[in-house]
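User: Hey, my collaborator sent me this sequence without any context and asked if I could get a structure. I don't really work with proteins. Can you help?
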Amino acid sequence: SEDPDQALCKYKGQVDVYRMDAIQAVGPVFARHIGHRLYRGEYYTMQSDAHVTYTQDWDEDIIQQQENTRNEMAVQSTYLTDIVGSIDEKTGRSLRHTRPIMCNTDYEGGPQGKHLRHMSQPERVPSVKGTPQLQPYWAAGFSFSRGHFVVNVPYDLYQPMIFQGEEMSIGIRGFTIGYDFYATERSICFHHYANGKNKAKRGKVKTFWEHANKYAGTGKKAMKRLLGIVHMNPEIPQTDWDHAEEDTYGLGGVRTPEKFYETFGIDVVQKKTEHHLCKFVQPGTMHRQFSSHLRADGMGINYDTITYRFKDPGYDDT
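Assistant: No problem. I've predicted the 3D structure and written it out in structure-token form, which is a compact way to encode the shape of the chain:
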């Protein structure tokens, strides 16, 4: 656009662009690793999928929500709601009073091995008012935090051709470093999913899979490393995966992956999860119980004082 008032023209001095040849694309993990390398000390950091539209004054809104957590280690993250019916075309404001919360995850298989994958997430009117709400999981489609999150939990450049699995890598590594994940109280952006009126347009978008034959076998090796770092494949010998730069792309010392698995009902040996975790998360039970363990200095939830172990209550979500 040549319109000087168009946002990309008006603020072009604040926008960095990295261009690369399509044949070098090896998946979102490496792409987002490059994105993290563009970080230059900004106070806040945000990540979202492409094909996303933001609400009017979204930046002021999400910053206020972040500060309302009173937690320096808070990371707001979610799977985004579909754009259809979500934003007022005249005002740019959200038309929705609900928002998704991350609590529904289970094992799935595939060519790269069994791993945890986020499923469809419940969307409800928030059960907690005045602050984002604690949840166990992190989502790649939207993440907002203090800038130090991308410094302490950088995307691992040794994970090419990974699509499913990256969220467990970042989420569990972040947990061990001391970060806590929250559902926003209000959605500030919405996704143009490939369905309905957007299906034809999105169907034309190229993906990194078109060059998968040139990188055959790298995804399986990367998945072994991804799962090995977060202690999710104890059946695989440590010598079977790449440990390069594990100090940089590995775990923290505040919590262990085992604490996460015990707390939220994940069996990494049998590859099973305790189902219906949303019954603990969505109504705000997790938030109310765990928020009382926020450290006095605001540096995250103290899981050393949490003894809770989730067990399947045995009935369906509603």
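In plain terms: The longest strand covers residues 44-48. You can pass these tokens on to your collaborator as they are.
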